[in-house]
Amino acid sequence: MTGRPKTGDELFELVKSDLAFAKETYGVDIIAVCTDDGPDGKKMRRLIKEQMPWLAAFECWAHQSSLITGNYLSIKAPWMAAAKLAIEVIKWFNHHGTALDLLRAQQRLSFDRILALILPVITRWVSQYCSLRRLKKLERAIRACVITHEERLRVCAGRKDEQIEAAEHIIGIVKDDTFWKNIERIASDLEPLAIASNLLQAPTCRLDTVLMCLGNLHRIFSQNDDTTVKSTVTKSLERRWAKTDQELMILAVFLNPYIRWRAFNHSKLPSMSLYHMILRAYQRFYSRDATTDIELMETFQSYLDGLDHFSDIAMWLNGFKTMYETSKQPVDITAIWKRMDTGPELTGRGGFVKLAIRILSIVPNSAGPERIFSAYGITHTKHRNRLNPQKVHKSTVVRMDCMESHRAAGLVPQRRARHFSLADDQAAMAAMDADSVSPALDGGHSAGPSAANANDMDFGVVTDLLINLAAGEDAEDAAAAADTSITTNTPSSHTSSSASIIDPVLRLPSYKKIKLADLFKYPEPGAPAEELEFFWKGGVNGLDEEESSHEEEIQDSRSENEGTEVNTV
Description:
Layout: H1 8-26, E1 32-35, H2 39-51, E2 56-59, H3 61-73, H4 81-94, H5 97-111, H6 126-137, H7 139-148, H8 150-155, H9 161-175, H10 177-200, H11 207-222, H12 227-242, H13 246-254, H14 271-286, H15 294-305, H16 317-326, H17 333-338, H18 348-360, H19 367-379, H20 389-408, H21 422-430, H22 459-487, H23 493-501, H24 516-519, H25 536-561
Parallel strand pairs: 1-2
């Protein structure tokens, strides 16, 4: 893209050239593309929809989850200020050795375990949640430390008036009951958004993952006691759901054999509507008229009812679930469908299976390529800045292949299991015993300013960044809607030719968008939501690893500083 205009038309031309390259070089047919939601990406997806409808095009849902969080953070409420105060408390303790040693000593008395205060980094907004959650977890120890050692804490940073004033400010924050209530409130709201973010940025994310996350977020926030929070987040969810390819996402959930039709609101989405979606997908992807395929209709009904080849036993759903749970991996739904494949035919059962594989193979995020771009930065440094792009690419491929082989061989250490939710934290802290002391943090050395990462930022910086991204995206949507209204009345040649395949008598009805609030059978508050939470546990586990990674960074930083830091009073 160097020297080329960054426009939607230019991006569309690049996509076409990449499709041709993949086909000619590797014999691979690309079935979907994904971009961020910038102006160029919006127009590129619109051009694909008009000129290449057989190619699915989605916005990056890892990015969309951040924008939903930005909408939440834009709420102007007094209790939101507690998050910035929390970062002040964390920084103050981490940057003053005596205060940190007193806190760690108090943790030994209160919990028999040492936990670090996590300072968030701007490159991971989820770390903001981990930071607040860890602070809330240590509330009892922090408050006890302040009550017991208030006079020492007042002068531990120095005896100048401004230093004592800063210490008294922190002590006042810690003593404020309202502060801790607000921290719990913010962390409780951010928790489901953080879980969804981890699910939507994962390489295993599929279209059904996205829709079930949206549905579960809608369920959670529609039950929020604060009307402003409820309205802001549910409107954000509805807005993002309204502009995506709803049919493919609905089909992806339906084609998940662990969910099928059970989660949907049947009055808004009857089985006939699902069958029409199947037929329209055939026209779109294969340019085939399947309206007269009786075997396909019978296959659809068998799958809907869970009979014959598509019963839970025949698809060995419990076996797959147990196998993947044993290896601590999410169930690979496409692997189940691939074992149902009967051959190259695109009719009847074989065609139904191939359609399921195609839809469930789509990864609706760009997190994978962005991780590769980050890896490029490890290879192409200021000391190796003369490497040409091809060498950087090849070196990164070798590096990633080595890491994958090490992971497959079991050479990568497994992270310790951790609790994630605030409720789990309270139970875990109550159950701590002397055997759970963390030896890596049990040394009495202060962290000091050098322990802070160069990317550490105040909560306000990350908040403003996400709010601005969300506001900018909303403005772009309005402009794109006006631009789209000019062109949407002109059908593409592919769409016209696909429609002409079908006998006018058998013409299918067009899809009418369904609101997220009407799409699912939402349970009553307090009732279990098994289908909607199908992927939720995986997101919780992902956040366990997120917190663990921050803990390890702090441990590494402290181990580097051991022997060089001096405690001061």
